[in-house]
Amino acid sequence: MSTDSNPITTEAEEKKEEVYEAEHVHKVYDIIAPHFSATRYKPWPIVERFLREMPAGSVGLDVGCGNGKYLGVNPSLFMIGTDRSRGLASIANHEFKHEAHVADALDLPHPPGRFDFAISIAVIHHFSSPERRVQAVRSILATLRTDKENPGRALIYVWALEQKNSRRGWDENSPQDVFVPWVLQKGNKSKQPKEKSQKQAKNLVETEVKATASPSGDSAQTRAACEPEEEKKEAEPNPVYNRYYHLYKQGELGADAVEAGGKVIEAGYEKDNHWAIIIPA
Amino acid sequence: MKLLTANFITCSVKSCQSVTPALSFRDAELAREEIDFSPLFLRNILPRIDWPLLQRTAKELGFPALPETKPELSPIAEGDEEGVGSEEEQKLLKELHSLLLETSVQSGKLVCANCGHEYPISQGIANFLLPNHLV
Ligand SMILES: C[S@@+](CC[C@H](N)C(=O)[O-])C[C@H]1O[C@@H](n2cnc3c(N)ncnc32)[C@H](O)[C@@H]1O
Ligand SMILES: [Zn+2]
User: Which of A79, A93, A164, A212 is most buried as measured by Cβ atoms within 10 A of its Cβ?
Assistant: First the structure.
């Protein structure tokens, strides 16, 4: 899709995608915020390592910080989180005492070129067009220091299409634009779930979803297990909310990074996710 | 929003981001919360501070004037693992700690000098989402 040849269509399309994401991403996170937060407390190892290796006094951003679980991993850093969901930013701020504010990843409220690092973990897969996903990477890269010797670095994580061994079982031939259900566990809102046990794993709620995901109308049918893994107690069915995801193919994040004017210095696959460390090229 | 954070914030409208400083506080209500003092953290963070912007923010919010230029600290002595430094430096670092980390804006707005947009702050959280016509 060309971006500048037909500004009118492009604008209309941008608008359509924004409206779509508002309905299928932002609204959902605001509704599930307390429950979602209760399941997000363990840092992922590569993210933790990235943050721990930053020199003391480095200043960085967490774009789409959710409940802010990464903002305090290394107390010798100064980190500012932003998230599109007021509910989650407010949990990060009030419950966990972090600096978290409300902003869209495409319109970050930060001076360009000022930050030593940025992370964006499981966020940009919620943008519903290729242009917006590239734009998200560009927007994150713009905040980083550009000095040639020691440029700022961004660690970006996205959900992978290739996850044959996950309980979702997707592989490289599965549809990339999908709805993933969140089963809201009622009456269990702010408690941290117990560590998974065999018994609990068996109680997984599995849902069949027929999703017309992606605003361009690509239809995708996907079978997905719900997160989080918690015991289901109530007899009454828990409400299910579908979130839109774009699942990244191997190499796709790197290609987006290059298109966004970045350079990948390290990349990998970890637990159903693709990740990359990107510097401004 | 802590004052340290405000030092790393600007208008979310792309075309305003080359304007410095773009944002100023209006109708700000401040809060103070005591937090642990770490001289080392402040020493490490000081080089990253935009001093003219901090001076301006402090003035806007009614704090006494800051030094004309960013203070230069002497390297910490051997064995001074916490970066305490001389008595004079200690005092300065405490003041910075109080201003940057213990003071926050609880409500009010940030107003852009370039595009005029006002970003509301409530319960300590600023909202930088843009209305459609500014995107
Ligand atoms: C799967 S959660 C990940 C949260 C956190 N990074 C973590 O690792 O726990 C996705 C987050 O992205 C946020 N998000 C979605 N679209 C966004 C956008 N356009 N701008 C900023 N944040 C967004 C959601 O509100 C949600 O907090
Ligand atoms: Zn502006």
Answer: A79
A86/A88 Cα distance (integer angstroms) = 5
Q: Is A92 helix (H, G, I), strand (E, B) or coil?
A: helix
b/e map B18-42, b = 16+ CB within 10 Å? ebebbbbbeebeeeeeeeeebbbbb
Residue A133: alpha-carbon gap to chain centroid: 11
Q: Where are the domains of chain B?
A: 3-72+82-134
DSSP letter, residue A112: T
Question: Mean pLDDT over all residues of chain B?
Answer: 95
Other beta carbons less than 10 A from residue A25's beta carbon: 21
Residue A41: partners with Cβ closer than 8 Å, 6 or more residues away: A67, A69, A192
Tell me whether residues B128 and A109 touch, CB distance under 8 A. Answer: yes
| A90 and B CB contact within 8 Å | yes
Do the Cβ atoms of A56 and B4 come within 8 Å? no
Could you give the count of Cα atoms lying within 13 Å of A278 in the half-sphere of its Cβ? Answer: 33
**Do you find a cis peptide bond into A228, omega within 30 degrees of 0?**
yes
Cα B17 to ligand 2 centre (Å) = 7
**Residues of A with Cβ-Cβ distance to B53 under 8 angstroms:** none
* Per-residue pLDDT tens digits for A102-154: 999 999 999 999 999 999 999 999 999 999 999 999 999 999 999 999 999 99
Domain B3-72+82-134 = CATH 2.40.37.20 = no
CATH number of A7-280: 3.40.50.150
Q: Max Cα separation, chain B?
A: 57
CA–centroid distance, A64 to ligand 1, in Å, is: 4
CA distances from B106 to A148, A225, A257, B35 (A): 39, 41, 37, 16
- B11:A109 CB<8 A: yes
DSSP A190-233: SSPPPPP-HHHHHT--EEEEEE--STT---EEEEEEPBS-----
Structure tokens at B99: 């201003």
Can you tell me the distance from the alpha carbon of B86 to that of A147, in angstroms, rounded to the nearest whole number? 33
Strand partners, A83: A102
Alpha carbons B124 and A64: distance in angstroms, whole number: 18
